[in-house]
Write a structure and sequence with these properties.
Phosphorylase Kinase, domain 1, globular, alpha+beta, 10 strands
Length: about 280
Amino acid sequence: MLAAAFPDQPLRGLAPTVGGFSNLSMLARLGGTACVLKAAELPAKRADLRREARMLAALRGRRVCAPTLLAHLEGAAWTLLVTRRRPGTPGLQLYAGPPDALLAPLTALGRTLARLHALDAAPPPDAADAGLLLSLRAAALAAQLAELPLPGELREPFAAALAHPAWQPAAPRRVHGDAGLHNLLWGSRGLTLLDWELGGWGDPRLDLAWVAWTLRFRALPAPCWEALLAGYGREQAQALGLDGAALKALALGQVAGLLARAAGRPAWDEWLRRARWTVDGGQ
């Protein structure tokens, strides 16, 4: 697929990425350009990459610190995404350092999310068909709960979370959908926010709720959340209505979605543990 799309730019230096849990992902050089390749074969994963391609294409030139999309290729069996490689340390590696080292990247993440949420574009006309409306994804997930082998103590909390009005905003905005240190690069050139396959149009509080959940899950101190809010703008965040019920519903609905995506895979047990932790008061 790459040879056909870029006949004059040989592919060299294939190597695994750090992370790459959700997709087959590789580092490479395409001609003289350092790239990241993401490939998917399963229908749901191919849909993820198509969604990410749409998000990245729409963000070009919008100062949101997203990777530059170079190509989105569709074959009979594979979908391939090619982005320009960005420098920096993967966010998961930052957790190994002291909490104080997380404050600067969290502040930068807050600024990036504020820019993203401030973009004034309404959902595109084909947003529903392209899977870009989080309200429809939440409704589909609520219907799917009955098919999942969930323990009884999780079904009602998941259903209640997905029924919360925060999943059906009157004026949806662009959101990343999986924001947090786990999806960024951090280095001398600042922040790059990666992995936009869960992005779309929804309630911007989802991104804030998910960052809050990830920080709490890793037992990080309160200054980490304060750094995120400082970057986002405390007044702007408060104007969204950061009440605890909405944030918990959004975080728990996100956990439900990730658990559903893990059904039948090794990650199921881990996301089941995280779901129980959340319902029991972790978030």
